[in-house]
Design goal:
- There is one protein chain.
- By secondary structure, the protein is an alpha/beta fold.
- It has 2 domains: 244 residues, Rossmann fold; 177 residues, 2-Layer Sandwich (Nucleotidyltransferase, domain 5), CATH 3.30.420.240.
- Strand 13, helix 11 and strand 14 form a beta-alpha-beta unit.
- The N terminus and C terminus are likely disordered.
């Protein structure tokens, strides 16, 4: 049973300000009612709440950077990304706007809708009216760009980013998240004119998505955050009771619970509740790893190499350096990983062995011997490559999932830590998706290094 929700009051400044070069004097809330045939949708309680934040940006009151986290299919793009910039351009035809999205195609679709609305209300230049870059007769207008796309030479007074993440696969890819962050921080941010406003509208996919990185940056304090979960939680910003649906007319509570059953708790928490959770894998859970800043004296070391030989494609070569401390704790010290040609791979393996010896002294180096005579030849080449180091190979046995189970048990028991470093996140990402993820080279290298540290037949090698 949904209880009645008191709507926030509509802005008190609908006629209190006017742009110098424009004629629009209404508030955004009032303007919306004339620009959509289903104007009643803009009076939904959560829509009015968001409009209040947008009205403050228009008035230059408070923070000029706004994040809006809203579940899918709630009208956020139509209101915020399409209509709000047109409203601002109607107020000031000299205003320059950039719209960004995960792809150029999606950004163009927003711009196309905005241009159609703008054309009905203000004069659009015949000389510059492409969907990705159109201009008003007064010199303002809109530029559309996809994540990673170049926007050199285009400044903006209002920058809107809508859905910078395409899919779960992209959200779980650190490489994709890095691209989005670099595009925002290096390219898009540099286009902002003094006093420009930013609006980021999205559903949350991952703790380390674009919103997550901004909120962990020094700029976080300059952003207002509007987070509206599909099912109300404690201290709901709209005053809902815990358990109430955000839009019961479209998505009643029963439907939301059905979506949660189908999608699973992790996806629902991010996409619908705007509380992204790190993936907890079947065999390796993120929360079970600890972190250390140093390796205790007296630790023993093994580096295991899981080798591949295709440059910039296919499988990765991964070398895991693991330590066992005097009190029996395991520390993943380093992951060296890349898609290298055979020559570059061998150069990296040798250089890594030299670095390990310099830092940690006696490090046992292991690799797998593939079946057959070719596997023996490759193993012999590996030993010759590392002449002068403590190097060993052994025939492969069992599948990777079975080999990973002993290491998984130690992780589950809280007996494995990571030495803090830049590789940590990629390493845990792969383990959390094992055995269904795209790659397993780091898993196999770590699991095999662990087994060499505990294998009783190798105690003599360590001088025990």
């Amino acid at each position: 049973m949904q209880t009645a929700i008191k709507l926030p009051q509509v802005s008190t400044y609908p006629f209190s300000f006017r742009a110098d070069t424009g004629s629009e004097t209404r508030s955004f809330s009032d303007w919306l009612k004339t620009t959509h045939p289903r104007s009643w949708t803009w009076t939904w309680h959560y829509q009015v709440y968001i409009q209040e934040s947008l009205n403050r940006i228009t008035a230059g009151k408070g923070k000029q950077k706004l994040m809006i986290f809203l579940p899918p299919r709630m009208g956020k793009s139509e209101m915020v990304t399409v209509r709000y910039p047109v409203y601002r351009i109607c107020r000031d035809p000299k205003l320059r706007v950039i719209i960004g999205a995960y792809s150029q195609e999606l950004a163009n679709s927003f711009s196309r809708k905005a241009r159609r609305l703008a054309r009905e209300r203000i004069a659009i230049s015949d000389e510059r009216m492409a969907v990705q870059d159109w201009q008003t007769m007064a010199g303002g207008g809109m530029r559309a760009v996809g994540v990673g796309g170049g926007i050199t030479g285009h400044g903006a007074d209002l920058i809107l980013i809508d859905d910078p993440v395409k899919s779960r696969q992209d959200a779980d890819s650190k490489a994709k998240r890095d691209v989005a962050w670099k595009w925002f921080s290096d390219d898009l941010y540099s286009r902002a004119e003094p006093g420009a406003a930013f609006i980021l509208t999205m559903t949350r996919w991952h703790e380390d998505d674009l919103a997550g990185r901004i909120l962990r940056s020094e700029d976080a304090e300059n952003w207002e955050v509007v987070r509206l979960p599909a099912i109300a939680e404690q201290d709901d910003p709209l005053g809902r009771e815990v358990g109430e649906a955000l839009n019961p007319e479209r998505f009643p509570l029963e439907k939301l619970l059905e979506i949660k059953r189908v999608q699973g708790a992790r996806s629902f928490s991010g996409l619908y509740q705007q509380r992204p959770q790190e993936q907890e894998g079947d065999m390796f859970k993120r929360s079970k790893f600890g972190y250390v800043d140093a390796i205790p004296d007296g630790s023993r070391f093994v580096r295991w190499w899981d080798k591949a030989a295709t440059e910039n494609d296919g499988d990765y070569t991964a070398g895991c350096l693991m330590a066992k401390t005097p009190d029996g704790h395991y520390i993943v010290v380093n992951i060296t990983r890349g898609q290298w040609s055979t020559y570059n791979r061998n150069q990296t393996i040798w250089a890594t062995a030299e670095s390990d010896r310099t830092k940690y002294g006696d490090v046992k180096i292991w690799s797998e011997q593939e079946p057959g005579s070719a596997g023996k030849d490759v193993a012999a080449d590996f030993v010759r490559l590392l002449d002068g180091f403590s190097v060993f190979t052994e025939p492969s046995t069992g599948n990777k999932q079975l080999r990973a189970e002993p290491f998984s048990a130690q992780v589950e028991g809280g007996n494995v830590s990571l030495l803090r470093a830049s590789w940590n996140e990629d390493f845990i990402d792969e383990l959390a998706t094992f055995p269904t993820g795209t790659h397993d080279d780091q898993v196999d290298a770590a699991a095999s290094a662990y087994m060499k540290l505990v294998d009783s037949t190798n105690l003599i090698l360590f001088g025990a």
